[in-house]
Design a protein that fits this description.
Elements lengths: L10 H5 L3 H7 L10 H12 L11 H11 L4 H11 L7 H23 L11 H8 L2 H9 L5 E2 L2 E2 L4 H17 L3 H6 L2 H9 L4 H17 L12 H6 L3 H14 L13 H14 L3 H10 L4 H10 L11 H11 L2 H14 L32 H23 L4 H10 L2 H13 L2 H4 L15 H9 L2 H7 L6 H13 L6 H4 L13 H11 L6 H13 L5 H8 L3 H11 L5 H15 L3 H10 L3 H13 L1 H19 L4 H9 L1 H7 L1 H13 L11 H16 L3 H14 L5 H17 L3 H11 L3 H11 L29
Antiparallel strand pairs: 1-2
Helix pairs in contact: 5-6, 6-9, 8-9, 9-12, 12-14, 14-20, 17-20, 17-22, 20-24, 21-25, 24-29, 26-30, 28-29, 29-32, 31-32, 31-34, 32-35, 33-36, 34-35, 35-37, 35-39, 38-39, 39-43
Length: 793
């Protein structure tokens, strides 16, 4: 418990000094010891005992000490603030004191963000440090929460203006002084209370900004169902408030990331899932359900995401707009952005704000405005982009949550995809907005610009699997039908069942627009990863010849090969996304292999292509799998066109060789282990299984196992590979036999029934050493190590 405060001037304060105060002074009548006070206050802050607040000192003592230490009078102001903020106070004097404290801290906060968040030192930002050390943060929390106290049945009230000052001071202290945000995050009742302050428009922005920072460091996720009257609160937000609120929602509905790589392994994820089943829904899932229960919530998000710039507020006070920008960007970034926009604007008339050049001084440091001033169009566009990012992120998370089917139906009904298509050129892919845009709380290396966030949305699995044809317009849907008719194959049922009133309008659908910008993107651009992922999501699932031809006709295959071969792309992420996309584009498609052979028309080009494949099988194994599956299907078809491709295609000829397959198989098994399996590299295990399943179909499974054994011996490590493979297959059974979604994906992508997958794994794991298709038959007894626990290192 903290020591009971002693008000300055009270009887206790006049009659004697506390032991702590005496010690600080170095005894009765002594001089203050430099640094001793701060040291004891810091100790009291950590332990909750001893010196913890300014009220434990007399005003005379604080004034005397301030002369030497230059505390800017902050401890004395806190002493007065405590005296004037008692329960029966009218808070008038209290607010005046806050007005004195506020500029002392806000100047340091501005300096902090201007210096790009350099490591904070107490000596660098003394005012905020002293304010916190003398109990200012705890005092403001108490003042803010006074309305939760009832006196004779009536709750206390404080003005919005006073709440606003308290919130601003708290935020500035959090910005400059390490540890303050974490301490506030530990006060769960205070965090919940903050949500109630968002009911007032006057305090909304300051509250939302503070909540966002607090939730960003909070160890345990807050539960939105504990927020009083959540539904009413959110329903009463205007569109701008809802957009800002999405920044908070982004933290409350996303599963918390521990930051430990081991937690991302499939072993750890499976263990966590088992634990979650016993514990019930996570806080993130509860929060998602709470939001979806709010009437009209998803509809409003869709409207926000697709609202045109011309519909946004055009006339507003510059100060009000600056305040809104503050919630999107840190202070210095706001000013930089405003000056940059100002310099870009060539017209300075009554319809736009007159900005001073950088470095020019104006009264209060702000541009002159009038009630009729209007923000420059480029500034409004930037503003629109920034809140749309937050809205799209929230929709992405909801699309992948437990209620994804419900969300899927709603975003289709509210025409989100056609709306995004209409904004594509104007907002989503504006070149000028991507380079320097950095969101609040992010850095220059984040994928926080509009493009990755938009592409992440379009590649969201649940959405694309069920609604992918909404990415097209009516003319493009007709083109798919014509492709099926020409090939004399049944039209895709999902195309027939697509509600044409919900698809994109205009000359091009969203998918086609994406292909166009993809071709124009620089070879090493990180956006290429997201672009390829988004397009691949359109092809993912059951292979559709019409979908593949739709993209082939638009030159996608040639573009991918150019990036892989001619530009010799070095980015591993981009290469992986291109190999995955190329595999989906070519799988079972004779026309695609003909196009491939036409482009890779020399041995030199083919060798560059193989070099890229072999440089990292984790990245290229999905392509190897698709080509292997395609080869198997083509070999079983009687068709002149197929026979021609088989005889001419370098890639098919290369994959058809047993030594090539064995080389891939050996390396695929060797680069993964149960303890290191992740969602990214588990595909290597499934690709190795595909090779062996196809060998089993041809009664060649014993041959392939025997060759693996020989390769082991040639490496002088008998048993090391097959033991590892045995453990991997045991894990495979545990992982896939209890996850319907993953098994369906395996079946759809390979066109091999899941029962055949299971049978093959069971045959390989047969404990009978006399079985020619069992792994144990090829592991010599001295090297047998197949029963190791998965968690064993």
């Amino acid at each position: 418990m903290a020591a009971a405060p002693v008000a300055a001037g009270s009887g206790a304060g006049r009659g004697r000094r506390s032991a702590a105060t005496v010690a600080a002074w170095g005894g009765w009548g002594g001089r203050p010891r430099p640094g001793n006070i701060l040291l004891q206050l810091r100790q009291g802050q950590l332990t909750g005992r001893g010196l913890v607040r300014a009220v434990q000192f007399t005003e005379t003592f604080l004034t005397e000490r301030d002369k030497q230490s230059k505390w800017s009078g902050i401890p004395q102001l806190l002493l007065k603030l405590h005296t004037t903020s008692h329960l029966h106070s009218d808070f008038v004097e209290c607010q005046n004191i806050l007005k004195e404290i506020s500029p002392l801290l806000s100047m340091e906060a501005m300096a902090f963000v201007t210096e790009e968040r350099k490591l904070t030192q107490e000596t660098t930002y003394p005012n905020t440090y002293i304010f916190d050390l003398f109990g200012g943060v705890d005092l403001l929390v108490e003042i803010l929460m006074r309305p939760t106290i009832s006196i004779r049945g009536q709750k206390l009230k404080i003005s919005d203006e006073m709440s606003k000052d308290c919130l601003s001071i708290l935020y500035n202290t959090c910005v400059c002084t390490e540890g303050v945000t974490k301490r506030l995050a530990e006060k769960n009742d205070f965090v919940i209370f903050l949500f109630t302050l968002m009911t007032s428009k006057k305090t909304f922005l300051q509250t939302a900004t503070l909540i966002e920072d607090i939730l960003g460091v909070k160890k345990e996720m807050i539960r939105l169902d504990e927020v009083p009257n959540l539904s009413s609160l959110v329903s009463n937000f205007d569109q701008q408030q809802l957009a800002n609120f999405c920044r908070i929602l982004a933290v409350t509905i996303s599963e918390m990331d521990t930051g430990n790589d081991d937690k991302h392994t499939l072993l750890a994820k499976n263990a966590q899932q088992k634990k979650s089943l016993s514990l019930g829904p996570s806080a993130a899932e509860i929060n998602q359900a709470a939001l979806l229960s709010i009437p009209g919530f998803v509809e409003r998000l869709c409207k926000l995401a697709t609202r045109k710039v011309s519909e946004s507020t055009g006339t507003a006070s510059f100060l009000q707009e600056l305040e809104e920008w503050y919630t999107w960007l840190d202070n210095a970034l706001v000013l930089d952005a405003l000056m940059r926009v100002a310099n870009e604007e060539s017209e300075h008339n009554q319809a736009s704000i007159v900005f001073p050049p950088p470095g020019a001084s104006e009264e209060n440091g702000l541009p002159h405005t009038s009630a009729r001033t209007q923000l420059p169009q480029s500034m409004k566009i930037m503003h629109e982009i920034m809140y749309k990012l937050e809205v799209l992120y929230v929709l992405c998370v909801l699309l992948m949550g437990r209620q994804r089917n419900q969300v899927h139906r709603m975003i289709a009904e509210f025409k989100l995809i056609p709306g995004l298509n209409n904004l594509f050129d104007k907002l989503i892919w504006r070149k000028h907005s991507a380079s320097a845009l950095v969101l609040h709380g992010h850095n220059q290396n984040c994928d926080c610009s509009p493009q990755p966030q938009f592409l992440s949305f379009t590649s969201s699995n649940p959405f694309c699997f069920r609604n992918k044809y909404l990415l097209l317009n009516n003319q493009e849907l007709n083109e798919l039908s014509a492709i099926s008719l020409k090939a004399n194959i049944p039209e895709v049922e999902a195309v027939l069942n697509t509600d044409r009133s919900l698809v994109c309008d205009g000359k091009r659908g969203l998918l086609t627009r994406l292909l166009q910008v993809m071709k124009k993107e620089p070879a090493e651009s990180s956006f290429r990863f997201w672009q390829a992922r988004a397009v691949e999501s359109f092809l993912r699932g059951t292979t559709s010849y019409a979908d593949q031809m739709f993209l082939l006709k638009r030159g996608l295959l040639e573009h991918i090969l150019y990036c892989i071969v001619d530009s010799e792309c070095k980015s591993r992420d981009v290469l992986q996304s291109y190999f995955d996309l190329l595999g989906e584009l070519m799988k079972f498609n004779v026309d695609a292999f003909k196009r491939f052979n036409k482009y890779i028309n020399t041995d030199a080009k083919f060798q560059v292509f193989l070099k890229q494949i072999n440089s990292s099988l984790v990245d290229s194994n999905m392509l190897v799998r698709c080509v292997t599956l395609s080869l198997d299907r083509f070999e079983n078809q009687v068709d002149m066109k197929v026979a021609e491709v088989l005889s001419e295609c370098r890639l098919l000829a290369y994959i058809s060789q047993v030594p090539t397959q064995m080389s891939f198989l050996f390396r695929l098994i060797n680069i993964i282990h149960v303890q290191t399996l992740t969602q990214e590299n588990v595909s290597c295990l499934n690709t190795s299984l595909v090779i062996l399943m196809l060998a089993r179909r041809k009664d060649r499974l014993p041959l392939y196992l025997r060759l693996l054994q020989r390769m082991e011996h040639s490496k002088k490590y008998p048993g090391f590979l097959l033991n590892n493979f045995h453990n991997l297959l045991r894990f495979w059974q545990q992982h896939y036999l209890h996850k319907d979604k993953d098994s369906t994906c395996l079946e759809n992508s390979s066109c091999i029934s899941f029962s055949y997958w299971k049978e093959t794994v069971s045959i390989l794991l047969n404990p009978d050493r006399q079985s020619p298709s069992a792994l144990v038959s090829y592991i010599e007894e001295p090297y047998m190590d197949i029963d190791r626990d998965f968690t064993e290192e």
